[in-house]
Amino acid sequence: MNWKINKAEKPLKGEIIVPPDKSISHRAVMFGSIAKGDLKVSNFLFGDDCLRTLDSFRAMGIEITREGSGLYIKGGGLKGLKAPSGNLYLGNSGTTMRVLSGILAGQSFTTILTGDESLSKRPMKRIIDPLTQMGALIEPMEGGDHAPLKITGIKKPLKAINYNSPVPSAQVKSCVLAAGLYAEGKTSITEPFQSRDHTERMLECFGADIKRDTLTTEINGLKELKARDVEVPGDISSAAFFFVAGTIVESSDIILRRVGLNRTRIGILNVLERMGANIEVTELHGKLEPIGDVAVRYSPLKGTVIEEKEMPFLIDEIPVLIVAACMAKGETVIKGIKELKVKESDRVKTMTVNLRKMGCELEEEGNNSLVIKGGYKKFKHAELDSFGDHRIAMSMAIAALVSDGECAINSVDCVETSYPNFYSDLQKLRS
Ligand code: S3P
Fold it and tell me: Of 183, 229, 291, 381, which has the fewest CB atoms closer than 10 Å, so is most exposed?
């Protein structure tokens, strides 16, 4: 499917409820399935990635039923999973492959994890290394560093390790903590910069023996988790497209409802505010995670510097922030861009190719920074590509709003990954 998106002829107005958080939806199914007892997950994201997680646990014998916008899960405990009858196909979902590997590393049965073309190119050494140190038998079946992965069942517990992760990655951290549940003793992971902490929060809530400070998290293994209901907040990474749209389309005034405001995810709000955005947050009462309503009004922006340590707090929002930076007055420098190159697409390359077609100037500096020369009032309309990456498709749709005509965006089915209703939500704000 392709989109044709016309420049915005009038301001964006109104409000939307952004879709449920992808990271938390994955974790609710994964940790809910291996917790003991029944739980309800309210506001689950029925997008492609999370459905791959759901199907995987169903294939391993967990009873999961859909009810309206939520799920009921009959958690089977740490040893409640059964060998699936075939390979587990994980589509485009890096979170499923990396975090699930931690759980599977501690099972007594063997599994094979496969993915689509993009997932089969993404680096897996980052989880293979710590899991192997823990005594897991995990190997890329076609060599190299990539899926398909074979995880051979083991008959004894994993070994606890103290792991220094070379990458600030919540997927790696969550994988090691998940494996730590199946290890004898205390497993710890230390990150170079703090990443999102949804796993730690959920494990704490499920009664795990877990301790943490900013960079190190420690878990004591072989202890059952207790099932607890989970309420999934709105996904700030999906709201981000509209934070930027509301800021750059003249005279806009919109509200995004029930957005997850976890401190380790709100980098986008901090950076946009630094750039001069007009954003007002009203905090609401959230249980597991803080939530709030976010009002966004048009405001001219100025360039900024995004430091490497900020990156994990806004990693998925960088594509749409690049669009904002092109509109901002002056230069924006984004440091620590290496991780962006190993996402669903090489996001430095895919954003650069698209935005250059629209007349923007952006250039890599060294191997870890991106420099954007902003100041555009209108982008040139162009034919753009998602490169099969949901966040590129949606970022370019936002860029199209401030173009001088109509943009075509090719291959946009990938938005099903995280935001199936993106197009209709955008239309709602435009009407
Ligand atoms: C995620 C962590 C991030 C993010 C991804 C979801 C998660 O990846 O980019 O979309 O749910 O833990 P990394 O951990 O690789 O940075």
Answer: 229
CB 220 within 8 A of CB 186: yes
Beta-sheet strands, E only, within 319-389 = 331-335, 361-365, 369-373, 383-385
For ligand 1, atom 13, the nearest C-alpha belongs to 169
pLDDT at 367: 83
The catalytically annotated residue of 49, 55, 116, 316 is 316
For residue 95 and ligand 1, the question of a CB distance below 6 A is answered with: yes
Neighbours of 190 (CB within 10 A): 15
Q: In what order do the strands lie in the sheet with 253-260?
A: 13-17, 253-260, 291-297, 278-284
Residue ranges for the chain with pLDDT beneath 50: none
Instruction: Verify whether residue 129 is a known catalytic residue.
Output: no
Residue to substitute in 23, 52, 95 for testing ligand 1 pocket (most ligand atoms within 8 angstroms of CB): 95
Interhelix angle 170-180/125-133, rounded to 10 degrees, is: 20
Give just the sign of the alpha carbon dihedral 347, 191, 91, 44.
negative
Q: Report how far residue 388's alpha carbon sits from residue 88's, in angstroms, rounded to the nearest whole number.
A: 21
Is the pTM higher than 0.85? The answer reads: yes
Helices 390-401 + 347-357 axis angle, to 10:
30
Is 23 close to ligand 1, i.e. is its CB under 6 Å away?
A: yes
Smallest CA separation from ligand 1 atom 10, residue:
316
What's the pLDDT score for residue 269? 98
Please tell me the predicted confidence (pLDDT) of residue 287: 87
